[in-house]
Amino acid sequence: MNNVIHMCFSASASGSFKYAIKENIIKGKKVISFYDNLSEGKIGNLKNLDDRIEWYKSISHTKEISKEDIYEYKRDYHRYRRKIAKLTREDIIYMWYGECSEDICGMMYALELMKDKCFNIYLINVSSLVEENEYEAFIPKSVSEVMSKDINKYIKFKKELNKNTYKDILQMWEALKNQNQVLRIFKDGKVKSSYKEYFDIDILKNTNKKFRKVARTVGYVLGYSDQKVSDDYIFGRVKELIKQGYIEYTGKFGIMREMEIKITNKGIEMLSNNKEAIEFWKEREEETDNEIEYMRTFREECALKERVNIARNLLDVLEVEVIAEKTGLTIEQVKNLEMVMSK
């Protein structure tokens, strides 16, 4: 296993894998990590990064991006391409991802860089396994959500990447690059280009009528969205909603830690066009922050636990595809649940 190279697509995942190798939790020669989030910003030309740099300048929530920051950003890309170029046919690549646009876009870019070489590549989807205990169930959206001590259990679910799948992935990536939108989401089993306002309703329905720290709204959107998205992106949309009059602010504009926000009448009017969103907002106004956080988490975990139990009980009765349709789990999650039970 000394020729195994683990590839992942976020800084937090990289740290987990390096620790897992160091502590002999998993075997591997090294970890190759990609840190940029390609689910956000322009991706039409990744050889010239000027569009992406301008994007980051527009959404930064802390400070202006310096020349040193730009230099390091370009240097990281150069180093990553160089690491990919040094891979050989003797290397075995374990490419780790979850069902989120950040992981999958990073994986697509890596595969694009590797397309002229022949590798032994295995894909490991951490979202295909349901984590559960006596009280709750959990499906990782991304590799960054998997703890170092748990990484090894996923390796047995690896799947070798064949030529047809490789070709399909590159075609999807090319389509996303040609569309060149500023946001990509994971929906219906694949990554899709989306409109930049995708999270606006989520932002408004988590914004109070009284001034609260903007970080609180951003945190709620991040924590309870079905998508994996950065705080920079959400904060960037908050700033746009302020400019459009849907949100009011106090403090220093553009600095998250120094801003408080509240929804305006115009924002409430916008929410009123979405029955589910306005009902959510009204209910939220009546609850305390602790109650909101506890109840949301409790409902989600209980609902998933119930679906997993139903799927488990149906394994000897119905086909895997039917169980997946009835419970809302993916076919891979049901198959892996069956595999775990048979051991």
TrEMBL record:
Domain DUF3658: 155-260
Residue ranges annotated for the DUF1835 domain, each copy included: 5-126
Alphabetical list of InterPro entries matching this protein: DUF1835, DUF3658
Protein name in UniProt: DUF1835 domain-containing protein
Pfam (any one): DUF3658
